[in-house]
Amino acid sequence: MDSMTQSNSTILVVDDDKTVLDSVVKLLKGAKYRCLTATNKDQALDLIRREQPLVVLTDMKMDGATDGLLILEQAKSIDPNIVVLLYTGYGTVPSAVEAFKKGAFDFIQKFSTHHDLLVPVERAIKFAHMQRENAYLRSKLELTNDGVFYGAIGTSPAMLKLFEKAKRIAQSNATVLIVGDTGTGKEIMAQGIHYYSPRSKESFIPVAVGALPETMLEDELFGHVKGSFTGATIDKAGLFEAADKGTIFLDEIGEVSFDMQHKLLRVLQERSVRRIGSLKEHAIDVRILSATNKDPEVLVAEGKMREDLFFRLNVIQLRIPPLRERKEDIPALVHHFLRQHRDTGIVEVEKVDPKVLVALQEYDWPGNVRELQGLILSLIAEATQPVIRLEDLPKKFRPGLMTHVSVENQEELDFKSAKSKIIEDFEKEYLENLLLACNGNVTQVANKAGLNRKTIYRLMESRNINFEKRRLVD
User: Fold this and answer.
1) In what helix (H) or strand (E) does residue 318 lie, and over which residues does it extend?
2) Which residues are registered as beta bridge partners of 340?
3) Rounded CA separation 374/146 (Å)
């Protein structure tokens, strides 16, 4: 966790045992958290009202009573977004069930190591920040246009800077090259530039130039005259002429042939087009936007793009960062897609659990915003209740997250036994998912898990994981 997040994270620690209280506070302050302390329920509730801590860490039993549960209930009534962790030296599964039912974030046995305390606290802090950001973004996106550029969404510094630049260049007539990975929203950015430009009342014509055969592309862009080839029964204007006074967007410009690149260069130079089979030039007043999902300078160096065409297209370049570089935009994007599509499923989805947003930020999104949008649409379509929960996510989004134990048929287990069972199940599922993701490469699994290969092999043996067998089954 970064230092800024920690400095904004106040934890209220509640325990009637001063020795334990001092020890816990010392450990938390060593991890750069700001701490408040209370030794009973009344002090704790008073501090919650006055100081509004982000997280409460409280002993379950004080003076022989279950004050921790009372603090949990009353803290939630004061601040529904407060995150409460309970700890105890007398934990049982029924106690954990009761705590979770009342809204506890986690229930931990009194910690014997620093790791036992700091890991759940860090998770709680991260969840608390996400929960508050969740509520803030919902209201912000519903009431303002902050972080919105036409249909593109982003609240990260990188995207806000990009939106500002795009709005500024939209007012000019400059040719723009938009660079970004597949799924980052290059066409939406182009639409936004047209929307904010003086040409906004005229046509915006997108062309997937990389998806069309060259003969068809030439006819689409330049048109033809009657009789110029078999099937040319009438004169036909091309898309450059159709976009006159407006904007044309040439997507995946790096995929076209050298011959077509030469013809496009001529349009850029002469601002006129000649239909196939015609000797007549048609003057056009068109703003040209283009895009590529590859580095254009690399395309030039590899001889796949004409250098003179690159210079003509690259008067201004806009680079859209991939989603993995701006994961802080994920909550805003999720709320945007939710607002657009919330009523398209069987039930109307009202919100997303903050734990889901935390999980989504752990994923690297190779398909970028398009992949995220597809996931949200799928979750809405399959939703059976108005809240999207962590368990609704596909497994690949939660391989490293410890979910709360299912306590069915475990009423007889004590806390340590139940915790041991959870850890065994978690380790097995976590490693199986990583092995699948890494195609059985144990070295990659060890690197991703932060463990050595010997430990991975030991865990595979102890958890009875046979990857070759699992791969054949899948």
Assistant:
1) strand 316-319
2) none
3) 24
CATH fold group of domain 324-397:
Helicase, Ruva Protein; domain 3 (1.10.8)
Domain ranges in the chain with CATH number 1.10.8.60 = 324-397
| In the block, residue with structure tokens 């990975």 | 181
Fold for 415-473, please state it: Arc Repressor Mutant, subunit A (1.10.10)
pTM above 0.70, yes or no: no
CATH number for the domain formed by residue range(s) 3-139: 3.40.50.2300
The CATH superfamily of 150-321 is P-loop containing nucleotide triphosphate hydrolases (3.40.50.300)
Instruction: Give CATH 3.40.50.2300 domain extents, the chain.
Output: 3-139
pLDDT truncated to tens, each residue of the chain (474 aa)? 433 344 467 999 999 888 889 989 999 998 889 999 999 999 999 999 999 899 999 988 887 666 888 999 999 889 888 999 988 876 555 676 677 778 888 877 766 667 778 888 888 888 887 777 666 555 554 434 556 788 888 888 899 999 999 999 999 999 999 999 999 999 999 999 999 999 999 999 999 998 888 889 999 999 999 988 888 889 999 999 999 999 999 999 999 999 999 999 999 999 999 999 998 999 999 999 999 999 999 999 999 999 999 999 999 999 999 999 999 899 889 988 988 888 888 888 888 888 888 889 888 999 999 999 999 999 999 988 899 988 889 888 865 444 444 444 445 556 666 667 777 777 777 787 788 777 777 878 888 887 877 788 788 878 778 654 333 233
For residues 246 and 343, give the distance between their C-alpha atoms in angstroms, rounded to a whole number: 35
* Cα separation, 177 vs 163, whole angstroms: 15
83, exposed or middle or buried, with CB in 10 Å at 0-12, 13-18, 19+? buried
